[in-house]
Design a protein that fits this description.
The complex is a heterodimer.
Chain A (H helix, E strand, L loop, with lengths): L1 E5 L4 E8 L5 E4 L5 E10 L3 E6 L2 E9 L5 E5 L2 E9 H11 L8 E4 L4 E6 L6 E2 L4 E7 L2 E6 L4 E6 L6 E2 L4 E5 L1
Antiparallel strand pairs in A: 1-2, 1-8, 2-3, 3-4, 4-5, 5-6, 6-7, 7-8, 9-16, 10-12, 10-15, 11-14, 12-13, 14-16
Chain B lengths: L3 E4 L3 H14 L2 E7 L6 H5 L2 E6 L10 H11 L3 E3 L9 H9 L3 E2 L4 H8 L1 H10 L15 H11 L3 E9 L2 E6 L5 H16 L4 E5 L5 E9 L5 E13 L2 E7 L6 H17 L4 E9 L5 E7 L6 H8 L3 H9 L16 E8 L1 E2 L5 E2 L2 E3 L1 E3 L6 E5 L5 E3 L6 E9 L2 H14 L1 E3 L5 H9 L1 H5 L6 H4 L7 H4 L3 H17 L21 H16 L1
Parallel strand pairs in B: 1-2, 1-4, 2-3, 4-5
Antiparallel strand pairs in B: 6-7, 6-8, 9-10, 9-12, 10-11, 11-14, 12-13, 14-21, 15-16, 17-20, 18-22, 19-21
Helix pairs in contact in B: 4-5, 5-6, 7-8, 12-13
Classes of the chains: A mainly beta, B alpha+beta.
């Protein structure tokens, strides 16, 4: 079966062939072949992986949008995997989508908003302090990812926010 | 000897105290918040009592409830651990009044040494050198401005009641003093309930060296050598070691002797730590005293062979110290990494969620002090530190090598942790040569988390993800658990049931 996998800066097309005996062979686009033993240690998300007898440990978690969050040998990667068919649809859908140029400033963690330093209409510099989020008793300053105008502020001082909540929008 | 000890804390330090009690045959009482019902300290103690809701103010900081539980359970002593109530004089006092032994210094000594301003006065009287600054708390940002102009920038604004980097701000330019004063005051009120701050000159290119002391009720006091704690981020220690590369026997003896003198001067009893700033010319200045057990006490335990918590309990029982100064020998080297649930590659933002699975490192020279288990929830309410990984070796190089190995074995699945960053830190030139200071972690480019090291095997990760997808599809749509992990729901790997399932899975793979 052919799969397409990509991280933020890498892409890979991979053909996975499982033989009748259960042996799995991986085929890269350049014709190179590897033997994989992807072996569940416990449950269906914790694996010992032998690739041409090189040993790795893999823990698999699914993100909110179906992406794979792979812990490989203690390091974490986010990988999107598509089947051949999904890959074709996705590339069609991507053409035609316009970039609005807006930036959503999201809460990087749940916390308490202790200071809101801007209001709609304000023009901000890149790196300017926008608000302060308190979590685990530490104040965390959120700064503008780029220069722009504050389009909207969706929170107020004293409010508790969930992770990934859009706090304000810069246009 | 004490009969039953209530441990007024949570997490790894509660376990540390429970273990020491068990070693001495002392019964243990745990207290817990609603968020900690499943925690190991509840499960390992002999008895456990609910304190209240998750926020510390409603649980681990409730002096009245803790004393009530102590009385109800018949505990004859309370060990406060570190953080929470450990440095609150009124807590020690309330214990004294209730006739319960506080495993720590007397309230009077906490008051003297815990208040940073009066601590300076004690230190000065004991002949310990002091950093230029105010002896009393400052009333306004205008006063802060005036004093800073006098002693010269950069300056450090610190909470009188502070600790752990909270309520602390560095000011380099006069125009920033007002906002820094306000921020420090605000943070101090939020963290300690008291907003008083003081100011001192910030010494640069200095090391944070601290001396562990032990004192008993019979007038004996000794020092257990030093700890090097300069690797700090936002004034939170990240990595500690014992001994320090920069101390020789003569300097160790001088610093140790003044630390003991200061402790005796304050009427100090039990375990305590005096923190110093050490310049490259081997000049040292008193910074503060921590009137409690320190997070990083294990490195001292490993190089001295002394169980500090056991000693604390013996001292609290009224026994004299088990050691004399001449019994103390520093042997080998120990390093501690504070593993936090924070993402080093995203500005150390807390990573909140469930630890789906944890695989602890072990082997020669490895000690893990941790309260994390499969299903442990990392919440907003408490400190992000989830484990202390400590290694020991005959020398520094061996301790470092073993730390690399232990981190490689240590797996924490489900949340992000600072573990990967420690590999970089331990291999960095500043760390290896000893050329690091209290500000290095934040200012030296070689110690900044390097995103290129965050993902060393991207190709293999792509392959692993494809195999995971292929596995999920071939095993009849049994998809890997999504972000809401059902931890603890899987059976252990050994046993007939699991083997049967594996065979079934292999069978189903063949069909694909």
């Amino acid at each position: 079966m052919i799969y397409y996998a990509k991280t933020a800066n890498k892409e890979l097309k991979l053909d996975v062939i499982t033989s009748v005996e259960g042996k799995t062979t991986l085929k890269l686009p350049d014709g190179q072949e590897m033997v994989a033993d992807f072996n569940p240690v416990l449950g269906n998300n914790f694996f010992s992986l032998l690739i041409d007898n090189q040993s790795h440990e893999v823990y698999v978690k699914r993100g909110e949008n179906g992406e794979y969050i792979i812990n490989l040998n203690g390091y974490i990667y986010t990988v999107e995997v598509e089947s051949e068919r999904q890959h074709r649809f996705a590339s069609l859908a991507h053409a035609g989508r316009a970039d609005t140029g807006e930036v959503n400033v999201k809460a990087p963690m749940p916390g308490l908003v202790t200071i809101v330093g801007v209001q709609p209409g304000d023009v901000v510099e890149q790196g300017q302090r926008l608000l302060v989020l308190e979590a685990m008793k530490m104040e965390n300053e959120l700064r503008a990812p780029r220069a722009g105008k504050i389009k909207s502020v969706n929170i107020q001082k004293g409010q508790t926010v969930e992770q990934n909540k859009v706090l304000l929008v810069i246009e | 000897m004490l009969k039953k000890v209530l441990v007024a804390n949570r997490g790894e330090i509660a376990l540390r105290v429970i273990r020491a009690c068990q070693d001495l045959g002392i019964a243990t009482v745990a207290v817990y918040s609603e968020a900690d019902r499943h925690s190991l300290h509840v499960r390992y103690a002999d008895e456990a009592y609910l304190l209240g809701p998750a926020p510390s103010k409603e649980s681990y900081l409730r002096i009245d409830k803790i004393l009530e539980i102590a009385r109800k359970s018949g505990a004859d002593a309370i060990h406060p651990g570190y953080g929470f109530l450990s440095e609150r004089a009124e807590f020690a006092e309330a214990c004294e009044e209730a006739g319960i032994v506080f495993v720590g210094p007397p309230a009077s000594a906490i008051r003297k040494m815990g208040d940073k301003v009066s601590a300076k006065q004690v230190a000065r009287a004991a002949g310990v050198p002091l950093v230029p600054g105010t002896d009393s708390e400052i009333a306004s940002s205008a006063e802060a401005q005036r004093i800073s102009d006098e002693i010269g920038y950069p300056v450090l604004i610190k909470a009188v009641a502070g600790g752990g980097g909270k309520g602390m701000r560095v000011v380099r330019n006069p125009e920033d003093i007002e906002s820094a004063f306000d921020a420090a005051t605000r943070e101090a009120i939020n963290s300690f309930g008291y907003g008083g701050v003081y100011i001192e000159k910030l010494l640069e290119h200095v090391k944070h060296i601290e001396i562990q002391i032990l004192a008993d009720n019979h007038g004996n006091a000794i020092y257990l050598g030093e700890r090097e704690c300069s690797m700090q981020r936002r004034n939170q220690k990240m990595l500690e070691e014992a001994p320090s590369m920069v101390l020789d026997d003569e300097l160790r003896h001088r610093m140790g002797s003044v630390a003991v003198a200061a402790a005796l001067k304050a009427g100090y009893v039990n375990a305590g730590t005096i923190e110093f700033l050490l310049t490259s010319e081997h000049k040292f200045y008193f910074m503060e005293m921590n009137t409690r057990l320190q997070v990083e006490h294990p490195v001292t335990e490993l190089v001295t062979g002394i169980d500090i918590v056991t000693e604390q309990l013996r001292i609290a029982s009224g026994l004299p110290l088990s050691y004399r100064q001449e019994d103390i020998n520093i042997r080998g080297w120990a390093i501690e990494c504070r593993v936090t649930a924070e993402d080093p590659y995203n500005n150390f933002l807390p990573s909140i969620g469930v630890v789906a699975r944890v695989v602890a490192p072990n082997g020669i020279g490895v000690r893990l002090d941790s309260a994390v288990f499969d299903g442990y929830e990392i919440s907003l309410f408490y400190d992000p530190m989830i484990a202390k990984l400590i290694t020991y070796g005959k020398d520094r190089a061996e301790a470092i090598t073993r730390m690399h190995r232990a981190i490689h074995e240590f797996r924490i699945y489900g949340v992000r942790s600072s573990l990967p960053f420690f590999q970089q830190l331990l291999s960095s030139e500043p760390f290896l040569t000893g050329d690091f200071y209290t500000t290095s972690l934040e200012t030296n480019p070689a110690l900044k988390p390097d995103p290129d090291l965050a993902q060393p095997q991207p190709d293999m990760a792509l392959i692993a993800a494809v195999l995971a997808e292929h596995f999920a599809q071939s095993s009849g749509g049994a998809k890997p658990a999504s972000s809401t992990v059902t931890s603890g729901a899987t059976e252990p790997s050994s046993g007939f049931g699991e083997e049967w399932k594996r065979t079934a899975r292999r069978e189903s793979l063949r069909k694909g």
